[in-house]
């Protein structure tokens, strides 16, 4: 399994509005296409104004298919129009699960369904 970590640096003071827009307009459509949310966080200590979210995939082909479907969804683009102006920087990292963690991650994801 793979986990994608996405990190957005937001404008100072915009996190509350970002999260409000995401919860109201973005989360439903994103979960329709990317059902395996591992976590969604913001920083409290260290570099501030970061939003970090992580998504699990069985393989990189699944990631490509799911993200392409999301990018083709007009609802997703409507949401992006609301939150992209708050984003200053975006980073993405794809990590492969350690062999001993695969089953644990699958159980964690199953518990959220």
Short description:
With 113 residues, this protein is of the alpha+beta class.
Q: Radius of gyration, Cα only, in angstroms? A: 14 Å
Strand order across the biggest sheet? 2-3-1-4
Q: State the major sheet.
A: 4 strands, antiparallel
- Say how many strands there are: 4
Which structural class should the secondary elements be placed in? alpha+beta
Number of helices: 4
What does this structure look like?
This protein has 113 residues and is α+β, with helices and mostly antiparallel strands. The protein is built from four helices and four strands. The chain has helices spanning 15-33, 60-71, 74-83, 102-111; strands at residues 2-10, 37-42, 50-57, 87-96. The radius of gyration is 14 Å and the shape is globular.
Question: Topology of this protein?
Answer:
Blueprint: E1 2-10, H1 15-33, E2 37-42, E3 50-57, H2 60-71, H3 74-83, E4 87-96, H4 102-111
Looking at this protein, list some descriptive labels.
single chain, 113 residues, alpha+beta, 4 helices
């Amino acid at each position: 399994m793979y986990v994608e970590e996405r990190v957005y640096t937001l404008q100072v003071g915009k996190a509350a509005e970002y999260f409000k827009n995401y919860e109201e307009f973005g989360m439903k459509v994103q979960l329709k296409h990317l059902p395996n949310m591992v976590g969604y966080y913001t920083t409290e200590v260290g570099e501030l104004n970061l939003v970090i979210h992580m998504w699990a995939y069985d393989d990189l082909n699944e990631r490509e298919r799911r993200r392409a479907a999301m990018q083709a969804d007009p609802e997703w683009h409507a949401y992006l129009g609301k939150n992209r102006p708050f984003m200053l920087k975006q980073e993405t990292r794809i990590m492969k699960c350690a062999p001993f963690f695969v089953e644990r991650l699958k159980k964690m994801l199953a518990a959220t369904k």
